[in-house]
Each structure stands twice: as structure tokens, then as C-alpha cells.
Amino acid sequence: MARVDVIMPQMGESIAEGTLSRWMKKVGDEVKRDEPIFEISTDKVDAEIPSPTAGTLAEILVQEGQTVAVQTVVARIETEKGAATSAPTPSASAPAATAPPAAPKAEPVKAPPALTAAPSVATASTASTASTASTASTAPTSGTEARPTAASATETADERLRRRSTPLVRKMAAEHKLDIGTIPGTGHAGRVTKNDLLGWLETKPAATAPSVATAATASPAPSAPRVDPWPGDRVEPWSRIRKLTADHMIMSKRVSAHVSSYFDVDYTHISQLRAKKKKEYAERGVNLTYLGFITKAVADNIRKHPVVNAAVSNDATIFRQEINIGIAVALDWGLIVPVIKHADELSLIGVARAIADLGERARTKKLNPDDVQRGTFTITNPGVFGGVIGFPIINQPQVAILGVGGISKQPAVITLPDGTDTIAIRTMGIISMTYDHRVVDGADADRFLADVKKTLEAFPETAV
Prior knowledge:
Blueprint: E1 2-7, E2 17-23, E3 30-31, E4 36-41, E5 46-50, E6 55-60, E7 67-69, E8 73-79, H1 157-164, H2 167-175, H3 194-203, H4 205-208, H5 240-255, E9 258-266, H6 268-283, H7 290-302, E10 310-313, E11 316-319, E12 325-327, E13 329-331, E14 334-336, E15 339-340, H8 348-363, E16 377-380, E17 400-404, E18 408-415, E19 421-436, H9 442-457
Parallel strand pairs: 12-16, 16-17
Antiparallel strand pairs: 1-8, 2-4, 2-7, 3-6, 4-5, 6-8, 9-19, 10-11, 12-15, 13-14, 17-19, 18-19
């Protein structure tokens, strides 16, 4: 018999730690190769991790709720002798933890420019959720941690910041004009976490107030009042993804000047196209939804309106060349925004297939870190639940997010070919867009929405 180590995988190049959120097997259970055995949460995605080999789960070394560094041994599987050599080597982009752990070492990595990775709604923090149901833990401080060596003494300032913080923390530090090197870090290898930075801001409000017109009179943001449960109330601690979403939404409202516009859209033509092509698409394994048409119309019009496909960096605007559209997916345990890369290069069937694929992998926790990064524009669809209209919060560091309202048959005034008006039953809905008024003016937003509306109402049949 032999024992195979199960490690905390590295779910992306910039991720140094993960939280083991749930064990799907217990000690003594038989496991099959590639069978999911535990779930992890990182600051990018939640994922199910498969077993590297078949055998019996012999030891669990990391408990639910613990946050540990990547490459940490979390469990051991007892298997037939030699089985360990059959386990494949894990890749940075795949969730499989399939190789014995190697001693982690600090490798300087060239830091990307600020704001090059767009965090999703559900990926705004690197801190693990603390609750009364589980004990919040930090990365281990044993001798296995990566520490600076003589070889790393020549690392640049950017490389040092990369090693000590995540892209989100660096972005927040830049917004508050902070030097991360002066903040004590509690994360793996001394990395500065979001909680470290927020704690620093709370203790030094005068030195870190944002440099806006009212900076002279700025005061710390008020903390939420303490609320005690009453007899009979049920208290449910926030999940990690709920905490990340809450932090990201608060940060977005604080950073951007939110303004919204909305347009009525006549979907009657698209409804007719769907009725004509739905069966053909279904035979090709694709569900032809209104969201597919809307996403395609948005992607085709963004190039004409680059300001809605942008990001803000200090006192400058970054106009993104790529058009990567995030689609918000509502899950039972929270919200996540997987991204369709280069959406403008896809046909309608390609867009529809990508929406279905990303949504299914989000619900089954099969997303990779790259699936939720580098978004440049986001679409959320509250109308699927019957909502008439919504005004969503901007998904930082983007500058615009489109909300899709409910689509239903309604009476509407239409003009006949002879110029007379009449009332007819039409398939109608509302699209709204919340945008950052620091860079997107009302005229910019309305011109973009008008073009999206025009495309939807006269969608070319040759493109279906």
C-alpha cells in the first residue's frame, strides 16, 4: 500500500492561498480517480477538486473553513503501491490537485500594469469569511512558507508588490494612495490582504482619505450598526462568496459616480426569429434565448462606443481593445460573473453556446480562474425572474453594466406603412445601463443604448 498526498492546487498564477470550504468525502470513504473530494474558495473562483487517484481517504489534514497556502497537503489517500506515479501533474489553470507537493518558493513574477484584470462581482476580496459557525484562519506561518532569498534580493519594487498582494489589494492601495510596503501583511509569506488594508484605513483615516474635492473634511465611512437577533430569528453567517460580493458592491459604490439610463425595446422581430430558428438551434445543442441576441447586439456595438468598454486608472481612462463580456450568473450560494472572451468575434450561435457553457460550469463549480477575469463590460439579467427593470451596480474596474428587464407581451402604439398609428400587441422589454459618470456622459450612454435597441429591433435574419 502507498499513500498519495492531496494538495491545495494553485488556481491561477496570482493566487497564493485557498480556503477549503467543504469536504465531500470523510476519512475511510472509498474514492475514485477524478471524483470530486473537496471544494475550495479562492479570490477568483469556487471549485470542486477531484481525487488524483483511486483509493481510500486515509487522512484529512486541513479542516473545513481553513485557509492554507497553495501546495499545502490537505489530505492523503491510501492506494495500491505505485498508484502515485500514475497521477497527472496539475496545471495552473485546471482545478485538479494531482501531484505530490513541492516545497513552495518565492519566484519573482513581473507585475502587470494596474487594472489589467477585471475582478468579477464574486471575486473582490482575498480574505476568508469569518463567522460564528466556523473559525476564521490565516495562512500557515511554519517554515514551509515562501520567504525572500538571496536570489530574490534583486527583485524590483513591482515584483515585490506582486509577491505581497493581489491585484485587487494593489488597486485599492492605489485609490487611497497607500504604499503597500508599509502595511503589515497577515497573508501567506507576509502578503497584504484586503482585511489588512481595510484595517489600516480604519486606524489611519486622516492619512489615507481619498483625494477628492472634499478630502479636507473627509471622515471614515460609518460602520454598520450592531443588530442583535430576536427570539425565534434564524442567523445565517455569510458564505465566502456572499462576503466577497458585499465587499465588492460597497467598494464599487464608493469608487464610481453611478448614473443610469434605460430604453424600451420592441423584441417582436426577435421573438419571430426565435420561433423560426429555435428547433434548428436545439438540434445543434444550443438554446436560442433572448439573452444571446442581447449579448450579440452589445458586442457588435461596443466598438463604436469605446468609452463604455473602458476602465479608470487614477486620472486616466484605459480604453480596452478586447471586448470581453461578463454574464452575471445567480447561484444558490451567491453571484458570479464568468466572461465571454472576444465576444465581438463570435457568431450568434457561438455567443449562445458560450453563455450556456459558462452558466453550467458556474452552477457546477467547474469554472477556472481565467473564466472570471479580464471582463470589460457586464450584462445582468434580472428580467429572467420577472423583474421589469433594474439598475445594477458597476462591476469594477469596468465603467458600465447593462441590465435586462423582463420581456412580455404588451399593448404598444405602432406606425403602419401608410403613416397611421394603431395599437397592437408587441413583445416588449426594457434595457438599462448603469455607468460611471466620471468618464461616461449621459449622451455617450444614450447613444450606445440607442444603437443596441436599433440592432435588436432590426436584427438581421442572415445573422441567426
